[in-house]
Task: structure prediction
Amino acid sequence: MDCLFCKIAAGEIPSTKVYEDDTVLAFNDINPEAPVHILLIPKEHICCAAEITAENSAVVAHIFEVAAKIAHDMGFADGFRIVNNCGDSAGQTVKHLHFHLMAGREFGWPAG
Ligand code: AMP
Ligand code: ZN
Result:
């Protein structure tokens, strides 16, 4: 399968790793939209949030545990944002499930 984030998870394409374990990888976004912009991915290929099921959702819960650990470890005292884009209309450009963990600036709502 020709999937960019599968290749990053396999180490075939380099990334700036922030956290890694058996099932989850976190690395810096190549085009940051905030002073801290980390992507959290399952190592297994799940295309998008619409494909989360009872069978594969444990890794999604684990991703949120890892996000909280990173937030504590990096000291996101003022808060942080976690974003998932699912599908073309939401702007998902890489079709491997990922969560954007962003911090270090003020965030608008619902956009920005
Ligand atoms: P999305 O638009 O939600 O699918 O997010 C995809 C993200 O992947 C974007 O924020 C890109 O900047 C980021 N990205 C694309 N290629 C790479 C790469 N090789 N290393 C790190 N981040 C990447
Ligand atoms: Zn993939």
User: Anything to note?
Assistant: Strands lie at 17-20, 24-28, 36-42, 81-83, 99-103.
